[in-house]
Structures are given as structure tokens and as C-alpha cells.
Specification:
Elements: H1 6-21, E1 47-49, E2 53-57, H2 62-65, H3 69-73, E3 79-82, E4 86-89, E5 92-98, E6 101-102, H4 107-115, E7 122-128, E8 142-148, E9 157-168, E10 172-185, E11 189-208, E12 212-233, E13 236-261, E14 266-292, E15 299-317, E16 325-344, E17 349-367, E18 370-390, E19 393-414, E20 417-422, E21 426-442, E22 445-456, H5 460-463, E23 475-477, E24 486-497, E25 501-521, E26 524-547, H6 555-559, E27 570-581, E28 590-601, E29 605-614, E30 617-619, E31 622-624, E32 628-640, E33 645-652, E34 659-664, E35 674-679, E36 683-692, H7 704-707
Parallel strand pairs: 5-8, 23-26
Antiparallel strand pairs: 1-2, 2-7, 3-4, 4-5, 5-6, 7-8, 9-10, 9-36, 10-11, 11-12, 11-35, 12-13, 13-14, 14-15, 15-16, 16-17, 17-18, 18-19, 19-20, 19-21, 21-22, 22-24, 24-25, 25-26, 26-27, 27-28, 28-29, 29-32, 30-31, 31-34, 32-33, 33-36, 34-35
Length: 721
């Protein structure tokens, strides 16, 4: 079959998938019918495209949920996560949320947190590429919202999940994940407890400028417990949530570097062995009251949240005690928000949403005997957003007003003298508009144009003078407490068809964008973050599914085929082109390529293969001189015991291609630095998910639920037809 035939047949494939997932409506007569229960079964979509976001289902995809959440995120098409570029999606920096609330975790600890969270505890990932006025303006370019699994049933249900994987480079290393999810519901309330642990061993080899070679042997231990309770108060609901995460990570670093003897004016080799220990604790408590009305589209929500996050870090050298260091940080965040939405008869139909948020953040860091950073931030905001329809057009128009009061001070201990200096204050009132126009050619096929203005406050880890990954006589990592917020103007045009095929182009204009900068002077390499006065980020993205049957069946045969995306073989192709324009730099763009194939084998065994590749190009102040983030992964999945048990065998980075090699582009007074690193990304493992057959006979279905006008979620339940 000719290549040009792939595109119309792909359109047919998309259309068939869409109609296969729709439930046909049946006409009903006016006679009364005695209906006790109605169970709705809905096929979940692996990928769902909306005008402002892309939704990835994790719950039913073993290739994503077999290991840690970080490993699953790295497999999402269009998402780039590296130590150099940070976490980006389609050219936009991601602000990480959980269940609709900011995580408030600094970038250094974010990777450890995501690695310490099992991917099977996540229901879905929403990447909001065009955050509207309902989201804080500080959401920046895009939001990664982690939706955890909270499906309460009308009986006690229990699910155990576990996995084991190993790597074998110079020695074998092991990773284990175990978790138990309990759900129940009775006529008074519903509750859920999800708890577990993980153990992970890993290694990294890195080299910086030929000055320092390091070999890091890591051991991570993670524990988590999430609890939720839901009380039905008539039509209203009261929700209580508590989350606890703890990480205990050890690093043993063997390094080879160079020293300089000022007396003899000679350079000599230095070998060192350092032991690092990091303790991380996160506590998050939320109270939500949801006021509901006769009109189910009208709602009023109140939410009170408290978040505490603290870290302790220590580095001890077995060879050079002068490299010993110890620091700690503590963060408290208090927030209260109100959201109200009301349907309005504007044009064909419409809705208005208004709300407000107050947030206070206190952050301080200690280095041995002094508090060397004291940071406070208060944010007050209000928003209004109008959504309306006119024939085939959807319109969104909104604005968010935010007032910032940011201040603090930094202290430095030198020669037994403490010097103190105030941070550059940021006291401003700003208005952030957003607008969206969408034209619907047909259901699930649309063209959209989006604009929003956002602000990104400096990540606290960038401000933190204790921002230490690893220091020795040749490497100096440090925070910059004088960074300023970044202002973004984001534009995007997008065509999407049936959730799986899309093409988009976006451009972001930014003032004071924050970027990592590395440079060398003599035998010392410095690493910090700086503001870029002005820059532009271009991003082109496209995705297309290709069913394998186009190579074996005629067009007429395919027209008669009943498509089910879980039962057919297909290939999903993704590509992205990004370019970072920075004044006085001749930056080159780079391509991101990705593909995912599904093949149904005999005995209903499902084979999933994923490949990703990023070409050479410029990433802010870094030049990738070799392709990176290359990986080829395989998964084999089989459901057993009447679908209660799911077993997955997986192999990641089979060809051991995932390596990073960059040249830094430093300021004029420093020299370029060659940076290279390799993690033990090639691993093999097994994962299993078992729904324990149990039932709580004391938990009875509330008969009032049958009369309730609210429809249950996609997990199924009792509804009124």
C-alpha cells in the first residue's frame, strides 16, 4: 500500500475508535419502569485530546504503570525530563500538581519524590498546555496534574500491586515496589487508604570538563500513605484528604579530580570518596466542602490546604574533611480558595466561573549554624472566566488578577563573620488574561486558537544557597537568591481529531526566563541559575496513529471491520520540533521522535513497544552534541483469573542508548564545559496487579443513591437512567 494512503485510512481508524467508544442511545417510552440498578461500563481512552489539555490514562496501561511514576512520565510522548533541561512538555516548562493542587516541591527533590511514588497509584495524568484563569497565574507555561486513584465502591475492595526489576552493569542492582489500596463505601461515607513502599538501587557515571569524574551508587527508600474520606451531606459533600511521603536516600560518590599546589605551582590528582544522605518528608492535608444545587452544572467549592515539606542533607568525605557539609530546609504553605460556577444563557449556552485564592509560603534554609535563607511569599488572587457556545464555535474569555508580596534575606558566614543582605523584593499587582476559540468540524474533531499570559516565580531550589547536588574541589553548585519572576505570553494553534491525531504550533514570549548556566574558570566549574532578559520558544508537535491492517487488508475490508483499540495492532507516531531563541546566541532547534506499537499475540497477550529519540540541538545554554533520551522499551501483558490478576514482563532501554552529552554555553568570562552522564537505565522486571476477592457484607448500597441525579464516574456505579 502506498504511503499516501496511510493518512485517510488513519482518519478512518480514528473515526472507528471514536464510535466504538460511544454508547448508543436508545429511545424510551413514557411507561414507568422499575429499575433497581444500572451499571455503566465505559472503555477508557489511552490518550484524550482536549482544547486546553492532553490526558493520559495510567490505570490500564502496564507499559506506563509497571514501575515508578518518574519512569512512566518519561515514556509520555512529548515530555522531556533531564537534569539539564528540567521537565518540559512540547517546549513548555511544567508546574507539577497533584489532584489539582500544586506539589510545592523544589526541582532538586522533585525527581526523588516522583521516583518514590508507584505509577500504579495514579489514575491518569493531565497535562494542561493552556491553563485558564481558574489556575494560578504562577502555573507558568503548562501544568502536569497527577490524578491519584480514588474510586470508592459500594463494598470493600482491595488491590495489591507489586513489581521487581534489576539492572546489571558492573554489578546487579534491584528495585521493588509494593502497595495496597483499600476502598469502601456505605450509606454514610466513603473512604480510601493507599499505602506502600519502594526500594531502589541505581548508579550514575558522569564527567565534567575532564576535571572531575564521578561514580555514584544510590540507594533510595520510599514510603507513602494517602487517606481520603467523603461524607455525603444531602446534595453537598465534605472531603478530607491526607498525604504523607517519606524518602531516605543514600549516595556513595567516588570521584577523581585535580588540585593545584600554589607553593610548587603544580597540578596533582585528587581521589575522594564521599557519602551523602538525604531525608525528605512531605505532609499535605486538605479539607474541601462542595456545595451542590438542583442544577448539577452549578457548584460552589471551598478548600483549605496545609502543606509541609522539609529536607535534611549531609555530605561527608572519607578522604577530604573540608568537603563535609550539612544543611536543611523547611517549607510551610497555607492556602484557602473558593470556586463558583453558574450556567448562563449566553448565545447557545454558557457558563461563568469566578473564584479567589489566598496563599502564604514560608521557606528557610540552614547551613550548619546559620539560617542562610529566609523567604516569604504571599499571593492574593481573584479570577473570572466565561465559556459560551455558538453553533460550531466554543469561546473562553477570562482574566486573573494577582497581587504578590515577596521578600526575604540571605546570610553568608565567612571568616566567622555573618553578613546579611535582603533579597530583591517583588511587590506587584498584575492582571493575566486568557482567551480561546475552538471551531468544531464534527464531534471530537476541532481547530483551536489559545492565548494566555502567565508568570513563573523562581523555584525555591534555584534561590536556595544550599542548592547542593555534589561539591568537591572542582565542582561548585549554588543557588541564586536574586532571581526575578518570569512573564510569559503563550500562543497556540491546534487541530485535533478523535483524541489520537493532532498537529499544533505554539510560541512563548518570555521576559526574565530562568535557565541553568555552567562555566569553567581554571580548575573550578560553577553551576547556577540566571535570568534571560528576553527569549522565544517555538514548538511544533504532531501525532498520528497507523493501524497495521492497512498493509494486509483492502480499503473495502477495513470499512467492514469493527474497530476496538484494545483488540487491534497499531502504531502511534509522535514528533516535535523545538527552538529556543536567545539574544546573542545562534541556537539550533532539535527534534523529538517517539513511537508506540501495540501487537496482540496469541492467548490475548499484549505486546507494547516504545521508542523515543531526541536529536542534537541547543537547550537554553547547552548544546547537545549527541542525541539523547534514546530508549527502546518492551512490555508483555497478560490478564488471568477472570481479569483479577494482571502480569507484566518489561524491559527498558534494551540497547543501552540513554546517555547525555552536552557542551555548556557560558557567559563571556567563563569557558565552555563538556558534561556527560550515563545512568543504569537498562533494566528488566516483572509487575503484577491483583484485585483481592473480598466484600464487606456490612456495607449496603444507600437506596437514596438510586434517586440521586448525579451520574457516577467512569468506574461504574448506580445511576438513574
Amino acid at each position: 500500500m502506498k504511503l499516501k494512503s496511510i493518512f485517510p485510512i488513519s482518519a478512518l481508524f480514528l473515526g472507528q475508535i471514536y464510535f466504538a467508544q460511544e454508547t448508543p442511545k436508545k429511545e424510551t417510552d413514557n411507561k414507568e419502569k422499575q429499575i433497581e440498578t444500572v451499571t455503566i461500563t465505559k472503555t477508557k481512552k489511552a490518550v484524550e485530546q482536549k482544547a486546553d489539555r492532553t490526558i493520559f490514562d495510567f490505570s490500564e496501561q502496564p507499559n506506563l504503570n509497571s514501575g515508578t511514576l518518574m519512569e512512566g512520565l518519561k515514556k509520555l510522548p512529548g515530555l522531556v525530563s533531564t537534569d539539564i533541561a528540567g521537565m518540559m512538555y512540547q517546549g513548555k516548562f511544567l508546574e507539577v500538581y497533584m489532584d489539582g493542587r500544586p506539589l510545592n516541591i523544589s526541582s532538586n527533590e522533585l525527581t526523588a519524590f516522583l521516583e518514590g511514588m508507584p505509577a500504579n497509584s495514579v489514575e491518569r495524568i493531565e497535562i494542561v498546555t493552556q491553563p485558564g484563569a481558574e489556575f494560578p497565574a504562577t502555573s507558568g507555561g503548562a501544568i502536569l496534574n497527577i490524578i491519584t486513584s480514588k474510586n470508592a465502591k459500594s463494598y470493600l475492595s482491595a488491590t495489591y500491586s507489586g513489581s521487581y526489576a534489576f539492572t546489571n552493569y558492573e554489578k546487579a542492582r534491584h528495585k521493588t515496589v509494593n502497595s495496597l489500596n483499600l476502598n469502601a463505601r456505605n450509606k454514610y461515607f466513603g473512604w480510601q487508604i493507599n499505602f506502600g513502599q519502594n526500594y531502589r538501587e541505581s548508579a550514575q557515571w558522569s564527567e565534567i570538563a575532564g576535571l572531575s569524574k564521578t561514580y555514584t551508587d544510590r540507594t533510595g527508600r520510599g514510603y507513602f500513605a494517602n487517606a481520603a474520606m467523603t461524607f455525603d451531606l444531602g446534595k453537598d459533600r465534605l472531603l478530607l484528604n491526607y498525604e504523607f511521603n517519606k524518602n531516605n536516600n543514600d549516595n556513595v560518590v567516588q570521584s577523581n579530580g585535580l588540585g593545584f599546589d600554589e607553593i610548587t605551582n603544580t597540578i596533582f590528582p585528587i581521589n575522594s570518596e564521599d557519602f551523602g544522605k538525604t531525608l525528605i518528608n512531605r505532609n499535605d492535608a486538605t479539607i474541601t466542602y462542595q456545595k451542590r444545587f438542583d442544577d448539577k452544572n452549578k457548584k460552589l467549592d471551598f478548600q483549605l490546604n496545609y502543606n509541609n515539606y522539609n529536607t535534611d542533607y549531609a555530605q561527608n568525605s572519607f578522604v577530604n574533611p573540608s568537603n563535609n557539609t550539612a544543611n536543611a530546609s523547611n517549607q510551610n504553605v497555607y492556602s484557602f480558595k473558593v470556586d463558583f460556577s453558574q450556567p448562563l444563557k449566553i448565545l447557545d449556552e454558557g457558563k461563568i466561573s469566578v473564584g479567589g485564592l489566598y496563599e502564604k509560603l514560608n521557606f528557610d534554609t540552614d547551613n550548619r549554624i546559620i539560617t542562610n535563607l529566609d523567604y516569604q511569599r504571599q499571593t492574593s488572587s481573584m479570577y473570572a472566566e466565561l465559556q459560551t457556545k455558538l453553533k460550531k464555535f466554543d469561546f473562553i474569555l477570562g482574566a486573573r488578577a494577582e497581587n504578590y508580596d515577596i521578600n526575604g534575606m540571605t546570610r553568608v558566614l565567612k571568616d566567622d563573620i555573618v553578613s546579611e543582605e535582603k533579597l530583591t523584593p517583588f511587590n506587584q499587582f498584575r492582571i493575566f488574561p486568557n482567551a480561546s476559540v475552538q471551531y468544531n468540524f464534527m464531534q471530537s474533531v476541532f481547530f483551536s486558537f489559545n492565548y494566555n499570559k502567565k508568570i513563573s516565580l523562581p523555584n525555591i531550589s534555584f534561590l536556595n544557597p544550599n542548592n547542593t547536588v555534589f561539591n568537591n574541589q572542582n565542582i561548585n553548585y549554588g543557588g541564586n537568591p536574586y532571581l526575578q519572576p518570569t512573564i510569559f505570553d503563550n500562543f497556540e494553534v491546534k487541530i485535533s481529531a478523535f483524541d489520537y491525531a493532532f498537529i499544533s504550533y505554539s510560541i512563548s514570549y518570555s521576559d526574565n526566563n530562568i535557565a541553568q548556566q555552567v562555566g569553567r574558570k581554571d580548575l573550578l566549574v560553577t553551576n547556577t541559575n540566571v535570568n534571560i532578559p528576553t527569549m522565544r520558544i517555538h514548538s511544533f508537535n504532531a501525532g498520528l496513529p497507523v493501524p497495521f491492517m492497512i498493509f494486509t487488508k483492502s480499503f473495502s475490508e477495513m470499512m467492514k471491520f469493527d474497530f476496538n483499540p484494545d483488540k487491534i495492532n497499531f502504531l502511534y507516531l509522535y514528533t516535535s520540533y523545538q527552538k529556543h531563541e536567545i539574544p546573542d546566541l545562534n541556537n539550533k532547534g532539535f527534534w523529538v521522535f517517539g513511537s508506540s506499537a501495540q501487537i496482540i499475540l496469541p492467548k490475548e497477550i499484549k505486546l507494547t513497544a516504545n521508542y523515543r529519540h531526541i536529536t542534537k540541538g541547543n537547550y537554553f545554554y547547552f548544546d547537545a552534541i549527541k542525541p539523547f533520551n534514546q530508549s527502546f522499551d518492551l512490555n508483555l501483558t497478560k490478564k488471568l483469573m477472570n481479569n483479577r490478576l494482571t502480569v507484566t514482563l518489561y524491559a527498558d532501554d534494551i540497547f543501552n542508548q540513554n546517555k547525555n552529552t552536552f557542551n555548556s554555553v557560558p557567559p563571556n568570562d567563563l569557558n565552555p564545559v563538556l558534561l556527560s552522564s550515563k545512568n543504569d537505565t537498562r533494566k528488566f522486571g516483572i509487575a503484577f496487579n491483583y484485585k483481592i476477592p473480598t466484600k464487606n457484607k456490612l456495607a449496603k448500597v444507600d437506596p437514596n443513591l438510586i434517586k440521586n441525579n448525579n451520574t457516577s464516574d467512569s468506574s461504574g456505579g448506580i445511576v438513574t437512567p
